[in-house]
Each structure stands twice: as C-alpha cells, then as structure tokens.
Fold this sequence. Notes:
The structure is a homodimer of 153-residue chains. The first copy, chain A, has helices at residues 3-15, 41-44, 51-63, 81-90, 101-106, 111-119, 134-145; strands spanning 24-29, 32-38, 72-77, 94-99, 128-131. Chain A is an alpha+beta fold and 153 residues long. Chain A has a four-stranded mixed β-sheet with strand order 2-1-3-4, with helices on both faces. In chain A, helix 4 (81-90) links the parallel strand 3 and strand 4. In chain A, helix 3 packs parallel to helix 4 (81-90). Chain A is globular and about 50 Å long. At the A-B interface, helix 1, helix 2, helix 3, helix 4 and strand 4 of A face helix 1, helix 2, helix 3, helix 4 and strand 4 of B.
Amino acid sequence: MKFISRAIQLAAEHSASGNNGPFGAVIVKDDKIIAEGWNRVVELNDPTAHAEMNAIKSACQSLQTPDISGATLYTSCEPCPMCLAATYWAGIDTVIYACDRHDAEAINFDDNAIYQEMQLDNPNKKIKLTQESHKEGLKVFEDWKNNEKKIMY
Amino acid sequence: MKFISRAIQLAAEHSASGNNGPFGAVIVKDDKIIAEGWNRVVELNDPTAHAEMNAIKSACQSLQTPDISGATLYTSCEPCPMCLAATYWAGIDTVIYACDRHDAEAINFDDNAIYQEMQLDNPNKKIKLTQESHKEGLKVFEDWKNNEKKIMY
C-alpha cells in the first residue's frame, strides 16, 4: 500500500465513528513507516491533537529525539499552520498530502482561515496580540544566552 | 504578581538547568490562572512541547473541552506559528507576550524564520509540499460530510 493511502486509510478508519476529525498521517524514514497518527481532538479534549502532530510526537518518541530530519510526512490533508510549523521544528523537509486547505474549508474546518491569518501582520490579525514587560522577558533570554549548560534544539 | 510575570518566571525557573528552552506561559480565564506551561522539548523529546502548547493542553484537560474561548494566553515570548495556530484552534482570542520573534532569533531560535516561511506560497517554501491521491482523499471528506454522527469542533 502506498504511504499516502495508509494516511488516508487512517483518516477513514478513525473518523467513521464521528468522534474524530477525518485526518490521518504517517511518518516515513528510510522507506519504512515509523509512526502513525490520526485526529483525536474530540476524544482527548485537545485542540492540538491533529493527525500530523500525533504522528510527529510518536515518531520522536520512537527515535528518542525531537529532531527527525530526513523523515517524510504523508498526510491525508495539507497540514494546517500549526502542523506545518511543527514539521519545521521536527526537521521534516518533505510533505506529501492528499486533500488541501480548500477541501478542508468545504467541510467546515478553519485551516484556510488560519493560513490567511498567518499572512497578516500582527495588528491586522483577529487574535489581539499585545506586548508587555519586554525588559523583564529579555532578562531570561540573556540568562539563557550565557547559560553554559544549555542544550540547543 | 502580574500574569505576564508568572509566565516569565516559569521560563526562568524551568530553563535554569539548560535542559529546556527559556519559555513559559499561563492561561487565564475569569481573572484566574487555569493552566501553566513551559518548554519541555528536550526533556520529552517532543518538538511540539512548547510552553504555550503545554499550557493550552493543560487548560483543555482541566476544563474537559478542546474549546477554551474567552481565555487569554500570557507567554514570555510571542507564540511561534505552531503555537499561534493552536491558539486559534483553542478559541483563544487574546495573547499577551513579553519578548518577540526577533528576540528569539537573537538567541538562535527559528520562530522568525518559520514566520517568514508562512508568508510564502507553498511552491516557494523550504519544505517541499506535494499533492498525491487527491481523489482518494476527497472520498473520506465526502463520507465525513455525510456522517450524521459526526461531532464538529
């Protein structure tokens, strides 16, 4: 079975009950599936439990590292901005997807709307972002910069 | 103590060992802190374990819902695109931050770089995004659309 078909199969299997959104994903490394994930937002009361996030976390657990560079993400739908940013943080540089953000929008998911928000400067976003206590925050970054024990990731 | 100061305090406390990035966050609802989070990427081998993500998940667990509309996120640093998209999915519409993406860049974190990627159309992104098996994927969305048991979120 093609890797993308397995991602789509996971989406179908885990959404049939109506309890989880219709999204599935697999992570492939060295031509083998090393992790699978599916949407569990409703089941877990976790708005971050998207298929891709769950697959990435599972792959990282499996390899015991937060950096899975060289892995490929196969997902039944184009990653939303949360999941796409997670692929960057995980070091993934190749994503194969079946449906896209517009298909997701057609079944009432906000992926496309959130992509549009990401294009805007902060003052124009729907979310109100305000800066406070900048100097107090910078002190922690300064301490981190000078921390000789720090582990970068 | 101000809510933003508590977020900054969490960042300081949990990064002093050098094992976790210097980021902290709290979620406030009805003028009370309902959840706290800090960066645990290295500790958990989880690239998604940012302070804001952990705080959002904890708040949702606490209230037993993936929708915490009306809550405010206080974070020691402007949320990266992953965390900002998570605030949308969680229904949060107000974010107070101390440091910003440029401060994070100055201590070698990729927040600003990932924001720049988000501004680009897919073909111009560093991550290679390719569509496959679109029709096969759409079938699952069609089934979901017609699923009378589905729970939207």
